[in-house]
């Protein structure tokens, strides 16, 4: 299998609103993927299409080499936890595990029981009486006990406090390590993604702005600080992603080979939050002045072309 998710020109409309547009993406297996972007960017729509809950309006998509929800066997290979980490308030924790066993052919009852014990959940407790963090952990337990090859998580920790988020992420990574599951984790909390994700997709205004392995993306993006100048004066081979200017100084975020400090020139590394926010800001603003290459205003990721 060459990709866990392949999309080409994928689009989804709700009436007049375009929720996803020309989404072209190829995600290799074996990664924990951070799907990041502002609210309304199309993250939830993409994940709902990927798990078969929504049909696209245009384009095509394959998940684990097949159409989403194309067969019962394909459904069994994909786990999904929605944004509100849904559980059934009137059912007990034990009832949820029984339901999972009855509806999933690859169900791992021992794994489910072990996780419930580790979490300290009372099997007799009604889900409606659990805290938000406990409900999220119950939903994750059902998803991982399904033994999926791909786990789709739609902002599962958005409503949790910092301690509950950290606990959720720790249990998620333990499950991934034990089972070798590929994960696509949607979030707008970059600090959470930075700890667990080794692949990044930035989705802004319903379009993919950036995609690739996190280490590679951080290694090919830099901050350049220098005396005030135009982007066109930068060395060839650099793509300007963002720029700010004061009366005397210019700061550029660029994609390309690292340039050594020369004279008033300083090149600095970026962290993941810097990288994500730069692409989010750039997508919401008019394109900057052209840099030193003819394609300098084309910020479409190479693997999304």
Automatic annotation (TrEMBL):
UniProt domain ABC transporter: residue ranges: 5-230
Q: Does the keyword Cell wall biogenesis/degradation apply?
A: no
SMART domains linked:
AAA
Region Disordered: list its residue ranges.
285-305
MF terms per GO, please?
A: ATP binding; ATP hydrolysis activity
Q: Which Pfam families match?
A: ABC_tran
State where composition is biased (Low complexity): 285-294
Query: Which controlled-vocabulary keywords does the entry list?
Result: ATP-binding, Nucleotide-binding, Transport
Q: Does the keyword Nucleotide-binding apply?
A: yes
Q: Which Gene3D superfamilies match?
A: P-loop containing nucleotide triphosphate hydrolases
* Name of the protein this chain belongs to: ABC transporter ATP-binding protein
Lineage of producing organism: Bacteria, Bacillati, Actinomycetota, Actinomycetes, Catenulisporales
């Amino acid at each position: 299998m060459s990709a866990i998710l392949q999309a080409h020109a994928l689009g989804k409309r709700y009436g007049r609103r375009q929720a996803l547009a020309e989404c072209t993406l190829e995600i290799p297996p074996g990664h924990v993927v951070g799907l990041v972007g502002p609210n309304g960017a199309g993250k939830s729509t993409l994940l709902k299409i990927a798990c078969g809950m929504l049909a696209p309006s245009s384009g095509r998509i394959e998940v684990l080499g097949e159409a989403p929800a194309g067969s019962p066997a394909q459904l069994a290979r994909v786990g999904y936890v929605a944004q509100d980490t849904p559980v059934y308030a009137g059912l007990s924790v034990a009832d949820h595990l029984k339901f999972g066993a009855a509806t999933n052919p690859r169900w791992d009852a021992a794994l489910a029981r072990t996780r419930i014990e580790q979490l300290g959940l009372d099997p007799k407790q009604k889900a409606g009486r659990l805290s938000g963090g406990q409900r999220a952990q119950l939903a994750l337990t059902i998803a991982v006990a399904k033994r999926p090859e791909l786990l789709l998580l739609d902002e599962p920790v958005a409503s949790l406090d910092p301690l509950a988020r950290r606990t959720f992420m720790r249990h998620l990574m333990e499950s991934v390590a034990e089972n070798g599951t590929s994960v696509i984790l949607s979030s707008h909390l970059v600090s959470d993604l930075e700890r667990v994700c080794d692949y990044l997709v930035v989705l802004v205004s319903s379009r993919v702005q950036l995609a690739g392995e996190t280490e590679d993306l951080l290694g090919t993006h830099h901050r350049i600080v220098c005396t005030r100048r135009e982007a066109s004066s930068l060395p060839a081979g650099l793509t300007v992603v963002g720029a700010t200017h004061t009366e005397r100084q210019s700061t550029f975020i660029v994609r390309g080979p690292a340039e050594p400090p020369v004279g008033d020139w300083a090149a600095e590394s970026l962290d993941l939050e810097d990288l994500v926010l730069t692409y989010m800001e750039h997508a919401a603003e008019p394109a900057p002045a052209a840099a030193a290459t003819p394609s300098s205003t084309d910020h479409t990721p190479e693997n999304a072309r």
